[in-house]
TrEMBL record:
<dbReference type="InterPro" id="IPR004864">
    <property type="entry name" value="LEA_2"/>
</dbReference>
<dbReference type="GO" id="GO:0009506">
    <property type="term" value="C:plasmodesma"/>
</dbReference>
<dbReference type="GO" id="GO:0098542">
    <property type="term" value="P:defense response to other organism"/>
</dbReference>
<feature type="domain" description="Late embryogenesis abundant protein LEA-2 subgroup">
    <location>
        <begin position="96"/>
        <end position="194"/>
    </location>
</feature>
<dbReference type="GO" id="GO:0005886">
    <property type="term" value="C:plasma membrane"/>
</dbReference>
<dbReference type="InterPro" id="IPR044839">
    <property type="entry name" value="NDR1-like"/>
</dbReference>
<keyword id="KW-1133">Transmembrane helix</keyword>
<feature type="transmembrane region" description="Helical">
    <location>
        <begin position="40"/>
        <end position="63"/>
    </location>
</feature>
<keyword id="KW-0812">Transmembrane</keyword>
<dbReference type="Pfam" id="PF03168">
    <property type="entry name" value="LEA_2"/>
</dbReference>
<keyword id="KW-0472">Membrane</keyword>
<protein>
    <recommendedName>
        <fullName>Late embryogenesis abundant protein LEA-2 subgroup domain-containing protein</fullName>
    </recommendedName>
</protein>
């Protein structure tokens, strides 16, 4: 190929090719992806912290000593409690007051399971109707246990039963397993599962009251 010459016939050598520009694909998009991921993770962390903070606030408002939800047994009727041949026959009724003293917090009782125990052995179980408890409200639960169940009492347990049979006072424990949600304004918390234990009861046969610490029950999580 003939070499190009200038206008005056001078020779300037071969033409210089234009400079090449190199581009590394994906580098900019990779940085953008990392930034977006970090931003997303920070949003998730802040959201989780906010939800946890709201949950702790609601729990504190409800279970602080001033406005604590209270459970206590008000009435008990025991008309039968007989143990023969490892079979326990019983007829037992509890009235349990639930007091919500909070002005702005309601409670959804989505599940209520009532259990009766004697000498650490469960002898009956009842599922109660779910309900919503409004602000500054007192609700009475009526729990009835009636039937017979195999219960084995040996050694000290049998001695304790015979002693209580002679005195006419029986140590029976009532336990409520709950699944509840709290409502603060339009906000509803997630469900959690407190357990209510009423275990300081001395229940008289054919009586309408129970002795103990005023029938108060403990709340455990």
């Amino acid at each position: 190929m003939a070499e190009k010459q200038g206008l005056n016939g001078a020779y300037y050598g071969p033409a210089i090719p234009p400079p090449r520009h190199y581009h590394r694909p994906g580098r900019g998009s990779s940085c953008c992806g990392c930034c977006c991921l970090v931003t997303f993770l920070l949003k998730v962390i802040f959201t989780v912290l906010a939800l946890v903070g709201l949950f702790l606030l609601v729990v504190w408002l409800i279970f602080r000593p001033i406005n604590k939800v209270k459970f206590h047994v008000t009435d008990v009727a025991l008309t039968e409690f007989n143990h023969t041949n490892n079979m326990l026959r019983y007829n037992l009724t509890f009235n349990v007051n639930i007091r919500n003293p909070n002005k702005k917090i309601g409670i959804y009782y989505d599940r209520i399971e009532a259990k009766a125990f004697y000498e650490g052995q469960r002898f009956d179980y009842q599922s109660l109707t779910p309900f919503y408890q409004g602000h500054k409200n007192t609700t009475v639960l009526n729990v009835v246990f009636n039937g017979q169940q195999p219960v084995t009492l040996q050694g000290q347990e049998l001695t304790q039963f015979n002693s209580e049979k002679a005195s006419g006072l029986y140590s029976i424990t009532l336990e409520l397993s709950l699944r509840v949600r709290f409502k603060l304004g339009k906000v509803k918390t997630t469900r959690f599962k407190p357990k209510i234990e009423c275990d300081d009861l001395k229940i008289p046969l054919n009586g309408l009251s129970a002795t103990g610490s005023s029938g108060k029950c403990d709340i455990k999580f």
